[in-house]
Amino acid sequence: MGSCKRCGSCCKSLVFEIPHLSEKRIQLEYYKAHGCKIEKNQVIVPMRCPHLTEDNLCDIHEKKPFLCKSWNGEKREGFWIPKECRYNEDTEIVHKTNSEEENEQ
Predict the structure, then answer these.
(1) 3-state secondary structure of 9
(2) How much is the pTM?
(3) Pairing state of beta strands 13-17 and 42-46?
(4) How does pLDDT run along the chain (105 residues), one tens digit per residue?
(5) What are the residue ranges of helices labelled H in the chain?
(6) CB-hemisphere CA count at 13 Å for 67?
(7) d(CA 87, CA 81)
(8) Can you list the alpha helix ranges (DSSP code H) found in 16-105?
């Protein structure tokens, strides 16, 4: 299993599923006209979580919603993984302390 690379892509879209969406032409046109992407039966609404910080961290990490807490990076039913997600990349993010970052400057 991978590890979070803090790309924030999982917190920049709201995704919901509509069964048989491809058969619902008027709904498809509406969602597309309002900037949504369609993948199979999923509507992807570009919407950044208001709790996502500039460095792609959650500012309510200890109190975040159940859905956010329960996703562990594995593909499974009920969870949408954005194509931009870097979770499964081999490279690791190097976590630095504030003092280490200050020493580099």
Answers:
(1) helix
(2) 0.63
(3) antiparallel
(4) 567 788 888 899 888 888 898 889 999 999 999 999 998 888 999 999 999 999 999 999 889 888 787 776 665 566 677 777 877 664 443 333 334 444 554
(5) 25-33, 66-70, 98-104
(6) 10
(7) 9
(8) 25-33, 66-70, 98-104
CA distances from 29 to 14, 17, 21, 80 (A): 18, 16, 11, 22
Tokens of 30: 């509406």
What is the number of other CB atoms lying within 10 angstroms of the CB of residue 11?
20
Enumerate the domain spans of the chain.
9-87
Token couple for 24: 């619902």
Amino acid identity, position 60: I
